[in-house]
Amino acid sequence: MNPIADTGLLVGFLDVSDQYHEWAAGCFGELRTALTTCEAVIAETEYLAPGSGPLLMEMVRRGTLRIFPLLPADAEIIGTMMKRYPKMQFADACVVRLSETVADAVVYTTDKRDFSVFRRHRNQAIKTVTP
């Protein structure tokens, strides 16, 4: 299993007042491997949890978060995906693309509704762990 961190997991972990903090902290406590994510998720997390940037950078530096670059190589694929799902946000599109790129991917997300609709490779359900 290769865990992918979506924004909700990171916000929940870094913001002790977040409704998903206990769940996210438990996930980090159970995982014994780095989580893969992307710059879009880092940016969205810092926006939703202001001041979390230094902690996120420390997680990247320590290898807790592994950043997988998607742009510019995957821009066309991500754009096509966002056309298919008109309300899909950029960070979500990037996470779906990561799930297509990373072998044996499991997405850790608080966004159960959207990730039950989104499909990887056009028709495959995305494996998720949600609260």
Characterization of the model:
The protein is of the alpha/beta class. The chain has one domain (2-129): 5'-nuclease (Rossmann fold). It is built from 7 helices and 7 strands, in the order E-H-H-E-H-H-E-H-H-E-H-E-E-E. The chain has helices at residues 7-14, 21-30, 39-48, 53-62, 75-84, 90-101, 112-117; strands at residues 2-5, 35-37, 65-67, 105-108, 119-120, 124-125, 128-129. The strands form 3 sheets. Strands 1-4-7 form a 3-stranded parallel β-sheet. A two-stranded parallel sheet has the order 2-3. Helix 1 crosses helix 2. The protein is globular.
How does the SSE layout of this entry go?
Elements: E1 2-5, H1 7-14, H2 21-30, E2 35-37, H3 39-48, H4 53-62, E3 65-67, H5 75-84, H6 90-101, E4 105-108, H7 112-117, E5 119-120, E6 124-125, E7 128-129
Helix pairs in contact: 1-2, 1-3, 3-6, 5-6
